[in-house]
Known about the structure:
Elements: H1 3-32, H2 57-65, E1 74-84, E2 90-96, E3 98-101, H3 102-111, E4 122-125, E5 132-145, E6 154-157, H4 159-164, E7 182-188, E8 191-198
Parallel strand pairs: 5-8
Antiparallel strand pairs: 1-2, 1-7, 2-5, 3-4, 5-6, 7-8
Amino acid sequence: MNRYVVLAAALALSLLVVAGLFALRTDDQASSAGLVPSVPATTTSAKPALPAAVPNASESVSAAATPTLQLKDGRHFGYIESIDLETSPATLQFDLAYRLVGEEANQAAAERGYETPVENDYFIVNDNPKLRTLPLSPDAEILLVDWNWCCDALVTVDPERFQAFFGRPKYSSLHPRGEFSQYWVTVVGGTVVKIEEQYRP
Length: 201
């Protein structure tokens, strides 16, 4: 074979190899430079969950420390079942009732099957057996009927003496009547500040 032909073939082959290497290098550079587009992975961008509402600690404590009022402020009629001066504050068990007079008394009595007109012009309604525990003010004024010298004036007694009138085995018409009597209690801010015994013939 002619040596010139061999040299020409070798030169052509060398040129092809060089051209291939050049093309490969160009592609690599293009990829590294970011010229070759790529498809990004699909991601979900969710909003972060909001934290659960946390109650204000001071409000929670305040609500727990505030007792539910057993009676609205004002003057209420009923029965005192017992007194407890050992608790702090002192308390009394109160059975709320309604002392009706006049036509209201007659209507309530008739609805319950009692004779009308009612005797002594009053009628007591006590349909609900619920007892309410009421705080008793240490300065509460306690006014009782003096049944021995009845009945125009009330006498003042202290809480200790008043408590001693309760828990007696039976009713007595000549002594303080404790739970066997009827009372008006005056409530201010949920606390009993005054007790008045109700005279009944």
